[in-house]
Amino acid sequence: MSAYDELMAYQRDTEALSQIAGRLGWDQETMMPRGAAPQRGEEMAAIEGVLHARRLNPRIADWLEFIDETTLDAVGHANLRHIRRNFDRATKVPAALAARIARVTSEAQGIWAEARSDNDVAAFLPTLSDVIALKREEGQALAGEGDIYDAMLQDYEPGTTGDDIATIFNALRPKLTELRAAVREATPPPQLEGTFDEATQMKLTRQLAKTFGYDMSMGRVDKAVHPFSSGSGLDVRITTRTNPADPFNCFYSTIHEVGHASYEQNINRDYLLTPLGRGVSMGVHESQSRIYENQLGRSRAFTGWLFDQMNAAFGDSGVADADTFYAIVNRVSDGYIRTEADELQYNMHIMLRFDLERALMAGDLAVTDLEAAWNDRFEADFGFAVDTPANGLLQDVHWSVGLFGYFPTYSLGNVYAGCLYGPLRDAVPTLDADLAAGDTSTATNWLRDNLQTHGGLYEPREVIERASGQAPSEEPLLAYLSEKFGALYNL
């Protein structure tokens, strides 16, 4: 075997072990007995220790040195790019620190879930302080003399800095605020009323998953506190949640997670269990989940089909017609929860979290002041006060599991989705008719062929540019939102 072949065989085992670790995390969120959390923490720490040792194995440096790169094709060069990046990262983080982070964040999930259920911030803050201290230590190890937050971002959106994101957000914020103010002055559509059986929600949500191309022979849909997608290749699982008063929460959480899962399922099978066999970044991942959920799933064409499915599943919903249903689905409403936010206000939730976590990592905001900072910023941005911690600081799982630098990729995904939507519509002139018939395949196939199949072959911005024909910019997203909500609210 050549040095490259040996390295890739070694990498295949590392990727397989990483998938096993991911499956442990999925089980923890869906089926694991609550009392098993301390043991699961030890299990996660043990496997993370094994993975960390493999990722910094000195043999990787030897293989990289002896590979003749002139013999490699584009796939080979891309594999080496990812392996070098991961090896460099692994060699900077002490193994003991990686294991401690895995153990503490595993246990922190349960502590966060109970604190959220009890609306008890004080019960969570000591654990959050431990997580932040460990992540700052990790970030310092990665950054050296550089910026800690920038170093953390590389795990989720390689090549992007905090300043890059701040520039996009500074362009988005005033225009979103202006559009939101105009919408709030207009007459809103009615709200959906009634009670919707949760078992029926799950039945319809599985139908929606299939409608958007999710291959259930290589996946499954379960319930969790916080919806997520897990896995890649031949085993990609999603979760959703139900609320008897709000079936849209279930349906659009599912469509969102199917966007993630379809990306993973549609990657070129030749890349299975290699560094290219998963989504290239969380921003690109979010572009898929958001375009599935919003530009496709909340479109007038698709909501017309969903209106009929809702009435067939639940009986008369009390909504007069498909146009009213479309307006209800896209209703701009005051609310606390990021995952339930409408398209117009969603990015404002992300900007809040981005600024707070960047300040935490810089040491400019103490954990003890975090709740007050969150509440003050929320009231300033949204115009009303947080009523309970579960609707404020405790609503998201991300910080409990150490995902600092993750939140801004949600808005990057919205920006990328905006860039993709125009070219998709140009390429699929039958799009509205297809969606109105409940056929998403022309849209999802275009996304598969132009973006998803590439996996990690290209860098994040490059894959968006190749698919859309344009450099990423916030302008297409703002134009889409202005047109959509201007029409809905007669602005």
UniProtKB/TrEMBL annotation:
Keyword Zinc listed: yes
Q: Please provide the record's keywords in A-Z order.
A: Carboxypeptidase, Hydrolase, Metal-binding, Metalloprotease, Protease, Zinc
GO MF terms held by the record: metal ion binding; metallocarboxypeptidase activity
Which residues does the annotation say bind Zn(2+)?
Answer: H256, H260, E286
Example of a GO biological process term: proteolysis
Pfam families for the chain:
Peptidase_M32
Cofactor or coenzyme needed: Zn(2+)
Matching CDD domains, A to Z? Answer: M32_Taq
Reactions this protein catalyses: Release of a C-terminal amino acid with broad specificity, except for -Pro
Query: What PROSITE patterns does UniProt report for this protein, alphabetically?
Result: PEPTIDASE_M32 (PS52034)
Role: Broad specificity carboxypetidase that releases amino acids sequentially from the C-terminus, including neutral, aromatic, polar and basic residues.
Family statement drawn from the similarity comment of this UniProt entry? Belongs to the peptidase M32 family.
| Protein name in the entry | Metal-dependent carboxypeptidase
